[in-house]
Each structure stands twice: as C-alpha cells, then as structure tokens.
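Handout, page 2. Input:
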Amino acid sequence: MQPKARKIASSMDDSILIAVLMGGPGSEREVSLNSGRAVLSALRGEGLSVIGVDAVDTKPELPEGTDLVFNVIHGTFGEDGVLQEYLESIGIPYTGAGPESSRLAFDKIASKNCFTKSGIPTPDFEVFDVGGGSEVPSMAYPYVVKPSREGSSVGVHIVRNPEERKIALADAAQFSSEVLVEQFVEGKELTVGIVGNETFPVVHIVPRSGFYDMSNKYPWMGSEGATDYFCPADLDAKTTKIVQEVAMQAHQALGIEVYSRVDVLLDSLSNPYILEANTIPGMTASSLLPKGAAEAEPGYEFGALCRRIGELSLSLRA
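Output:
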C-alpha cells in the first residue's frame, strides 16, 4: 500500500545546508553508509541543500556553513554520545538524541537497569565479567549473550549449552569485558518506531532461519540470510496498543529526544518485554522505522520522514 502524502509545516528550505554524516569508525560502517546515501537522496528529493560527509574518524570535517548535521552513523561514535558531544562543542545542531540519552540507550546494561528501575518489563538479566573470577554465568539455559556497547546484533548469541556458551563469551569478549546475559524469551520479535510524540504501527520481524542477526538483517552485504517483515503486525487492537505504549515508556524512560526505534519481544501469553531502544536506527526506504512510518495514518513517505526528523531536531537545538 502506498503511503498517503503528508504535508509538514517546515522551517527548512534550500537556504539551510544539511550535512548527512555517515560511515564512522565503528563496526556498523557499511550499514551506516547505506543509510546515509538513502537519506541524502531523500532530502535532495525534498528540494533541500544537502551534502554527504563520510566520517572516517571522530572529528569529521564539516562543510563550511553547515546548519544541521543529519546523523546516520550507527553504533560506536555516532550513537554512543561521542559525536553529539563533539557537535555541541562546535555549536552545530544535529538530529536525534543528545549526549546523555545516547550514552544511556547505547549501553545495554545501563538501559536495562533504567528499565528495571522504571518498572518497564524487560527480560531478566545479569552482568558477566568475561575476565573476572566467575567461570560461567549463573543464569539457566537458554540465554542471550550481548556485548554491552554494540549495535546491529554484533557479537550477539543465543546460548543453549556449554559449547555455545564458550563460543558466545569468546566472541562477546572481543567487544567488551563486561557482557549482558539476558533470559531468552520465546515469542514474536517486534519493533516500534517513535518520532516526536507519535508511535508508529508495529513491525513484526520474522527471520527465515535462525535469529535476527547481522546476516538476516543485511543480506545485501553478501550474506545468505533473509527476513520477512509484516507491518502492521498481525496483532489484535488491545495487544497493539500495549506494545506501542510500553515502547513509548522505554523511549521516555531513557530520555530520548526526537526519535527512536524500540525493540520488543512478545511472548506466547502476549506479554511484552523491552529489549532496547535504537537512537540511530536504519534509515533506508526499506528499513524498519520507515516501514512503520509509511503505515501510519496518514503515512510518511521516506523523504517526509527525514524532513520531519530534521524539523524536530532543529526546533530543539537551533
């Protein structure tokens, strides 16, 4: 279904120079470049003055006269508060979450503690020091091992036995000594996009094999994975509302500004569990946040969605 056109009152016009910042030095560089090219094209299609900037280090050189940085650097540097602090230090407005909320959301352990403190349902967890005195996590199988500060399922493993445990902990240790060990919840994998005060229709993620790892997320990178997406998710109205509400609660508990995409597991009894909030989600026309936005009422075309994110960010920081 084609999204309905949405007119957005805009203070952005072609007199404003927007630098789309992409790439970055982290493990999600190729994914970010893909998002950046899509946003660049979409904003040009909106008639805006845009230039792409490939950030190869932590102090990217911006074009003279940049009025707004549209940040699509996923993961390390772009999503963990470092870039946000740098841009604030040089007085350049940018899209999305600020330094504090970016740091909190990107740190899986800190965000889980925030959810627990706020009474937001999330799978049970423990923090395991790979190099510490304890030999194995105390949680019963099955569980999920995640590096504390990576995105796009980098280093994530579902562990069902001692052999898988050894592989998972060794892989996660490449990214951090402290890892999140999280109860495995069998159920539907869902995600909810949020822009401003608006919660988008729920997306149901169904990998054709295994779980939603890098291979299944990004088959265009040469992997053999594949995933089907259903939006709106096939949920009754009551369950849909519950999932959207708990996603917004997580977004607000973390203090995220402007927009995010919140990942939720729904068990067989329709109980939702928050996994994490992504402050720089994928931003191609086929990514999950745009999928939800297109099915909103009225829907956002991709260019209008990018414009909306820019507008909200400018109103917050300009």
